[in-house]
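Here's what a typical entry looks like (LuxR family two component transcriptional regulator):
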Amino acid sequence: MIRVLVADDHAVVRAGIVALLGDEPDIEVVGEAVDGVEAVELAAALTPDLVVMDVRMPRLTGDEATARILAETPGVRVLVLTTYESDASILAAIEAGASGYLLKAAPAEELLAGVRSVAAGEVALSPAIAAQLVARVRQPAPPALTPRETEVLRLVASGLTNKQIGERLHLGEATVKTHLLRTFDKLGVSDRTRAVTLAMERGLL
């Protein structure tokens, strides 16, 4: 028997999932959580085999709740079930440790198969999600900034002008501009502000 905790803040959706799972002879729904905090608490109290987890919930998001459950209640596995299929949502859930990511629009058979697969220690991804991940992995890595380009951009971030940067690094102003233009090209941006912002987002600064 697969013991399942269902976590979803939408009562109607949650009831539908519970009804679907409850009709299966090998699945038992042992609890329902209305938000991420309750999901963490019930997972610890009930120690289900599997938590079916929504992504966007009050108090604690699905990926945050997933990370806490896996850290605090070893042995519990998480299957994310959501309407969202953005790269950010998928990666956040997988990085948090979820063993599966399915869409609520998926056929009932796909959801049931996913629950059984994850409970058995396997990974379950809907075809649409798997395709997105494959495409992301196949994307070529952006060109790396050289140490000098990074140095110039760091000084830009500190508010220095091209002339001031040149004086600081003992470079001509034209050389500083060349470094910046190459940096813009590598980052796919066209101005200093966006270059600094993107570099910070990527952990380059």
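The domain at 2-138 is CATH 3.40.50.2300 (Rossmann fold).

More examples are in the samples folder.
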